[in-house]
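hi!! sorry for the late reply, been swamped w classes. u asked for the two structures so here they r. pasted raw, havent cleaned anything up. first the sequence of the first protein and right below it the tokens
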Amino acid sequence: MSKFKLKSSYKPSGSQPDAIKGLVSGLEKDIRTQTLLGVTGSGKTFTIANVIEQTQMPTLVIAHNKTLAAQLCNEFREFFPDNAVEYFVSYYDYYQPEAYIPSSDTYIEKEAQINQEIDRLRHACTQALLSRKDVIIVASVSAIYNLGNPKDYEKEVIHLRLGEELDRRGMMERLINMQYERTNADLKRGQFRMRGQVFEIVPVNEERIYRFEISNKIDVIELVDPVTRQVKTELSDAWFFPAKHYVISESERNNAFTSIRAELEERLAYFKKTGKVLEYERLKRKTNYDLEMIEHIGYCNGIENYSRQFDGRKEGEPAFTLLDYFKWGTGGAERGMGNFLTVVDESHVTLPQIRGMFNGDRARKDTLIEHGFRLPSARDNRPLTFDEFIARTQHMIFVSATPADYEYQHSEQVVEQIVRPTGLVDPEIIVLPVTGGKGKKSQVEDIIERIKDRITKGERTLVTTLTKKMAEDLTDYLKDQKIKVAYLHSDILTIERIEIITKLRKGEVDVIVGVNLLREGLDIPEVSLVAILDADKEGFLRNETSLVQTIGRAARNVNGQVVMYADVSTKSIESAIRETKRRREIQLAYNKEHGITPKTIEKSIRNILEEFGISSSKAKTAKGGKRKEQLLKLDLSGDARPINEIIQDKEQQMREAAKALEFELAAILRDEIRELKLYKKK
């Protein structure tokens, strides 16, 4: 059996050795829930990789969006090149959930487009879990959604061995039951074909052809390149998993039909009794049509709404999810073969996201059920509740630079990772008054003086305000003072945002004024000063978590300093200062003890716009279709990410809009995604 083997050119340093030791010790003591409090830039992913190697536990890592999950997956693949590191996210390129808007009597039918590559990766996840233990799955919150019963999925696995007898007809029937398609044309994933004595299959998780030469037994098993038709290697055996995660037998299907029809009769009786004629006819017609489609072609649009009956679950029971595959694959109670580790990355964001999934889904389903579009059992096609998610995990590590109250309250151990391998320390914090007078400078007067001092040193400044209007007014005022300044907020086009950040790094701009600089992800080594205006105005942008995150923007420069302007000392300010001071003292003491001299991080400056062949001036002057194409190019280059990541972000926004019942906004985002995909093909 393969074991996790970490491969890296560097060894744990700074706080990493103690953090690794503490987390491993906690797992060995069977501590169920721990928190890794790691400052930005301290190498938290590397720490978790070391924990995985030392404990040899199959691991689920959950991130709060697809892009972050992809980045983490790539990092873990670099650390564990010889182990199974897989990626599990929603496989929809586009998804518009079924919905009904009573106020306008608008029914929106479910519309979805599946990304076949992501579907392949999802199958690779479940197959890895059922066939080996050295598995790391990096997932989004898709991990808490319906995936089908792992027992049924595993029951259908086919293992073919060289030299064993093979009934070709029986084999074809079994593959069809596993939802493979027979074809005489070119083979694709999840298809097979028979030509004389040659039998060929493309598994659902691969893009290679398995070729069998058969007499009355299997004479040859070969792995063939689908393009060149070259034989890559000869095999002694081959495994094939179902083409879909939802696998049911004929008897199970018949039982499900009986249950659905019984529920339909009960619901129709309710509508008849309450005089809801329209709902009665609507539900009767729709459900009977769905059953007819399933009976004849094995599928209908929205078949997942009948998952409770097909899974044989009781009312209110949660659906099977990726977590059940972890429990089944690693043994669980059924097999008695060990357990798995769950790592929640950026837990202060990810846990609230998991908590919110159930409520958004329930609100949409209730409306559909009330108006006769779905049976009440559709409610059980749902994500896990937060409590169900927690109950299905075994050992958990929450990872965050700013853990929330939940993490502190529910962790049996909090392990800190404060010292960075680079030796950089958290910035010094100064609190000054907002208002001036009687010999005191106002916040604007003071920040101008400090900005000019940084300019003489060749360093940059970030200033965060409370509103867009304040950002624009301050920017204009700084320009009047002959300071090279620009502002960032959500109304700024992608191209201008990229251009501004690049100019700041090059020194063409000395100051950026913004509203929510956390959103921009501005980790810029040249920035040595962060100014937080009106820091005493309690709220989302001035709570402890936001303040600590904003303070971290100055932690990439050896001269990092933060100035908070406040007339009143709030609890958030006091907590943020106290926490930053504590971290800074630990870091300075470590550096002194080990003779470390911190150095500013060196990070190359890329001209992102030129890499995409875009001129900002051309984009601004382009007209009509040309301008639209330029702006699409800019959108694709947003935040220096590949086109696929830009599309994924919009898809996430679309899903969030739909979950919030903002279906009109979801439709607009859908159209934008389609335009981006059309542009991608050019």
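now the second protein. again sequence first, tokens right under
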Amino acid sequence: MKLTLLQYKTLRPWLWRWHRRAGLAALIVVVLVTVTGLMLNHTSELSLGKTAVSNERLLGYYGIQTPKLSSFAVNDVWFSGDDKSQLYFNEQLIGTCQQSLIAAVAHQGYYWLACQQQVIMLSPQGEVIDSLSAVYGLPVPIVKFGLCEQQLCLATAQRSFVMDAEQFIFTPVDAIQPLVNAEANLPLTIEQAIIRAYRGQGLSWERVLLDLHSGRLFGNAGVWIVDAAALLLLFLSLSGFVLWYQQYSKKKVR
């Protein structure tokens, strides 16, 4: 006898039934993987790697926390530093600082920001003009920074210094303390803009789509579901071939 499994009458209905079921079961995952795969294939054109996620729920799901901000009001401008040592001119990111922002003042038409290990000079538009660190003779770590009458001055844990704002010379002085600009609460609109920018830095849409494509966005269960869908697709391919071959064999016999 030359009968094989392909010729049994019970095989074809069974294959048809499970072929349809497998197709329906894999449908949602296949559509999801197809759409995300197409988008990932055009990452550069869509700028997915450069576009930050701003959705609060998604950022929270990834565990990206709200930053701790230190903010100072100078005239009508707000300066802030976050816990990544990034600096903001109102809501605009302008650079980084060495350790935490501790003060911001206006002097001689410029803004001066002090971090624990650095002093930064800014234009009225918030552009960085110059920066000073210990390499340039800046006394560190700075604990206070502000104005002493008409001069910039700072204090470390050991002593105080008057700063020449033109030549960047630091002269030790006794019995003087900087007039410090105290921290203040940011206006809500600026605070929310900084928080969105901060949280989005750690998460791009490319990362989200990659996790969605692989199922990792839903944890281990998501990965297993995508794996199961891949096996169902394999079954669909094999069962489809078998069904086609049965039909082809019938026509050939005729």
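hope this helps!! also noticed smth abt the second:
DSSP finds six helices and 13 strands in the chain.
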